[in-house]
Amino acid sequence: MKPRISVFTLGVDDLARAVAFYRDGLGWPTRGIVGSAEQHSAVAFFALQPGIQLALFARASLALEAGVAEPPSGTSGCLLSHNVARREQVAEVMAQAAAAGARILRVPRDTAWGGHAGYFQDPDGHPWEVAWNPKWPVEDD
């Protein structure tokens, strides 16, 4: 099987609040919430880059869809990373996230691997890393 990931789905407590955080706070483009909350199909998609989407799905609906117990709010077993092209962009993205309502977990700092990174938690408890890695170039926006 060829490995392929095209969508990262995050379970959220309040779909409208989560959409506002990513769309209005971080400036990520979306068509907004699509589907029906009554049928547990309401979801919002954000195009991250060609072929990769972030989906926001109500935590209860995600559990129902996957056939698992609903995880407690504010928990996440993964870390999402947003890589930037320049060192100073780490602080810029962290400030934007904080202004949008993110909780800063770790202020930007130099790392043991030669880069620069900071960490924040979105309003639903999902941790994000914002990183600049000089050994892993990213195109500037």
Features:
141 residues; alpha/beta; 2,3-Dihydroxybiphenyl 1,2-Dioxygenase, domain 1; 2 domains; 4-stranded mixed sheet; 8 strands; 23% helix
Coarse shape:
globular
Helix content: 10-25%
SS-based class:
alpha/beta
Number of strands: 8
Q: For the CA atoms, what is the radius of gyration?
A: 16 Å
CATH class of the largest domain: Alpha Beta
Biggest sheet: strand arrangement: 1-4-3-2
Mean pLDDT: 89
Pfam families: Glyoxalase
GO molecular function, one term: dioxygenase activity
Organism: Thauera phenylacetica B4P
Keywords: Dioxygenase, Oxidoreductase
Short description:
With 141 residues, the chain is α/β, with parallel strands linked by helices. The longest helix has 13 residues.
Provide an overview of this structure:
This protein is an alpha/beta fold. The chain folds into two domains: 60 residues, Roll (2,3-Dihydroxybiphenyl 1,2-Dioxygenase, domain 1); 53 residues, 2,3-Dihydroxybiphenyl 1,2-Dioxygenase, domain 1, CATH 3.10.180. Helices cover 23% and strands 35% of the residues. The chain is built from three helices and eight strands. The radius of gyration is 16 Å and the shape is globular.
